[in-house]
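Notebook entry, structure prediction.
Reason for the run: the old model in the group folder had no record of what sequence produced it. Starting over properly, with the input documented here first.
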Amino acid sequence: MTQGINGSKFKSLDEVCAIAEDLRKQGKAVVQCHGVFDLLHPGHIRHLESAKRQGDVLVVTVTRDEHVGKGPGRPVFGQQLRVESLAALECVDYVALNEGPIAVDTILKLRPDVYAKGNEYADAKNDLTGKIVDEEQAVESVGGRIHFTDDITFSSTSLLNNHFDVFSEEARGFLTEFRSSFTPQGIIDLLQSLKGLKVLVIGDTIIDEYHYCSPMGKSPKEILIPARYLYEEVFAGGILAIANCVAGFCDDVELVTVLGGEDSREGFVRGHLRPNVVPTLFCRPDTCTPVKRRFVEVDLLRKMFEVSFIGTDLLPDIVSHEAACYLRSRLPDYDLVVVADYGHGFIDDRIIAALCDESRFLAINVQTNSANLGFNLVTRYDRADYVCIDETEARLATHDNCSPLEDLVCGIASELRCHRAVVTRGHRGSLVYANSGGFLEVPVFSREAVDRIGAGDAYFAVTAPCVAAGFPPELVGFIGNAVGALAIRIVGNRTVVDPVQLSRYVTTLLK
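New structure, fully documented this time:
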């Protein structure tokens, strides 16, 4: 066995690359394995031993904690423990942490003679990320070859799910029953079938600004907490985030929204939409595009204060008429109409009438927030095919803070002639309703919250096409809660939940 410098196997990537270059000059063949190795098991050991037989020196590169894309709660074991476990194996000569989220750059830098993967990757279609093809091309470009080991296969994810307390008791019970009816690949295939839906998305544009600060302590002269400004990020929020999320699952998406004539941010809006989102932008000259500027404590991402730049007047009649006429001409062409009504002035009674009259399948999310508390209710609409709101919004709409939630949902569904509904309940999961099957409670799969902004939008954006495509209620609830678990780990709307990310998490949950 080749010994590392000072007898240590754990090296920086630069150190390992230098060592590998020297070894090649000595005529030795370098083999690379790459992975997460969250729970080291016999399958891993057999794989690594088989890989070592393909050359003289085995280098294992390990995915850093922040780049493990298997969803909330993973990795269970941190990178230091994973590195130590690998280094303890006799067949492993060197271990290094990967610098980025993928292996391709490391392959190009390390230049292995052999890049070894498990036999589950031999068919590229089984790789949810699609990276195995890129990895094979990378190793061949540096004169190496890919080798698929053929030995017993275990799943770290399955072992962790079944033998470690990674889920709550409620989630374990739900997932155990759910696994008897659905497989990861079956769900992934259904999600891929959504691509053919033609979708129109309509709602208020919101520009989310995060101004990161460091609190300095109380002012001695005023009753306030000063903070030192550090830096800022600007995100495409509101209907922009929903359109981008929908566009990850559906190929044909039109966005209808309104921008302000003052400080329109049109360049930012157009520049932050997915390529397959076609924007139709109306302009109201009397105000600015809505901006929510949040001041955020940088270490724990606690929001300290918010300033909103939002108009309070009704939509000008000429803009309302123009938008409603456009919608009446376009809505019948779409399989699904997704409405995210934030109550910031765009969706008025005339536009609501057009949406209710002309949509073939109408999905509605009406939000209560500090700018419209108690005024923006789902009962503004007289029909819907799918409603997705939170519990507070359901109780405000029915003016009932005491009755069982199920009774309120039935009342809303009856009033809107709605056959499917979901009420999201934060850490208590979601309540899924179908007029043909009653109610189903779906627990949360993770409580690892980084930022809850945008989580409800993501839930709605992904479940609306699922409902329109006729997915069963239990699958809608499962997918929605999986999306929610992923979304609360995203700062603001820095990114949106995409199909690859969701598919990997579905696989993690159901193994």
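Summary: The chain has two domains: 5-163, 187-204+242-285+311-510.
The old model has been moved to the deprecated folder.
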